[in-house]
What does this fold into?
Amino acid sequence: MNTSEPKQEDHPPEGAWALVFVAWFIASASTLGALFLSQVMGIAPCVLCWYQRIFMFPLVFILAAGLFPFDARLVRYSLPLAVVGWTIALFHVLIVAGVVPENIRPCAQGIPCKEQPIEWFGFLTIPLLSLMAFSLIGLLLMATHFKVSK
Amino acid sequence: MKKNTQAKNHALAAKAGQGKKAVFIVSAIVLLMVFVLGALIYNRDKLDKSAQVAEQNLAFLAREHAPRLGPAEAKVHLVEFFDPACGTCREFYPLVKELMKANRDQLRLSLRYAPFHPGSDNVVRILEAARKQDKFWPTLEAVFATQAYWAPNHKAEVEYVWPQLGNLGLDLERIKRDMYAPEIDRILAQDLADAKALNVTMTPEFFVNGRPLPSFGPDQLKKLVRDAVAKAY
It folds into this structure.
């Protein structure tokens, strides 16, 4: 009788909540980090950074909404954002690394996407941090999906 | 029996749910606190540093070629980096004039160019060429007043500037000849190089005796000038 009821569970599979919570935490830390770079340190975001922000910022709210009460369908709504954000971040990292040739660079005007204002430890740039964050969020959401569907 | 375990499960879930909520709220608060504390620490460090570099800034700020206002012996030197196509620069102009008036004997002003908008370097060239006809300030005021006409969509269109300069008594033909003179190239290059050295990335940017604004805003500028005047006199 209850089979078509949404999986809005009081007690989700063990650990699924924690996976989503960690994904939310990463998204929130990334969002605040991005705001710190632009609003506090005054580093203007380039075009590609803006697109990554567009896919990162809403995750904070979508994932939080899916945590209380836990709703397994949140994967459906948040994974597309994480995947597209991940793709843009990867593209950005490839531009910085010089793998993607200059002439298909989409941001020749305004703030250059290639020049990196920050290089922590000699390799950790902002787009690389973004790629890491999107990768972790994507993996956590996929893990959540498998845990719930089991 | 079954009902009993269900109720028990519910109670357990409710308890777990409360624990989760606490974890969530505490995490959110910690994240926000890290952000706010980080911002406070960062800004304090920046302020300390800016006081240290004020001395070094002076070399980049004292350029003889810049258009000036106010008595040369005034002890407080206000330097503004501006872009003729920048709307905020236009809005700050009356305030700068007011400050000059209020501190007639203590304050002198130098204007430096930071034409960051596309095409606005040409408007700077017009201003410099007008300066040769002793009409820099009226031209600057006309350019600011009509900014909306010649800089639609934040792009300076030099051909729309000419009609706005009609009744200033300028020799426009001479301006068109003068504006690409090599000395104007040099002024533009020098100002942009100094802007870069001083880390000017947005306009307007103000320096009062070498000190940048602690944070952007008209009140901060007034206070910086007031403090510098109080210190110097």
